[in-house]
Amino acid sequence: MLGLDAASGAERWRHEPEDGRFGGIAVEGGRVWLVLENGWVLALDAHTGLPIARFSALELNLAGAGAWHRPARIGDTIIVPLGLVTLGLEAPR
Q1: 8 A C-beta contact, residue 27 and residue 78
Q2: DSSP, res 17
Q3: Is 53 exposed, middle or buried (0-12, 13-18, 19+ CB in 10 A)?
Q4: Does pLDDT of 35 surpass 90?
Q5: pTM for the complete prediction?
């Protein structure tokens, strides 16, 4: 993943997660949320690309699952749709 400067288009940061990304990303409140194929949910700092939080509620292998959804924030909860399973995670402060 790359974080780009909106004005210049220059690369600000690069993050290479330990597994492939599953579905889209969500950007909210200065954080980039993504789900990995191994079932982990990551929150990155949108300005630096550094990990802020990571969650793994289930041991999953989502490679080829075909449910390409992105996380969403509702209040203090991150909603993560994973095919037939939906996770609700407390957002880090």
Answers
A1: no
A2: -
A3: middle
A4: no
A5: 0.65
Query: Which stretch of DSSP H or E encloses residue 75?
Result: none
* Tokens matching residue 59: 């041991």
Answer whether 48's CB lies under 8 Å from 9's CB: no
Which tens digits make up the pLDDT trace of 38-88?
Answer: 778 888 999 999 999 888 756 655 555 555 567 778 788 877 776 666 777
φ, ψ of residue 8 to 5 degrees: the values are -105, -20
Domain boundaries, the chain: 2-90
SS3 57: coil
Measured distance CA(23)–CA(9) in Å, rounded: 24
Interatomic CA distance for residues 7 and 19, integer angstroms = 30
CATH class of the region 2-90? mainly beta
Q: Which residues have a Cβ under 8 Å from the Cβ of 93 and sit 6 or more positions away?
A: none
pLDDT at residue 90 in the model = 75
C-alpha span between 27 and 45 (Å, rounded): 10
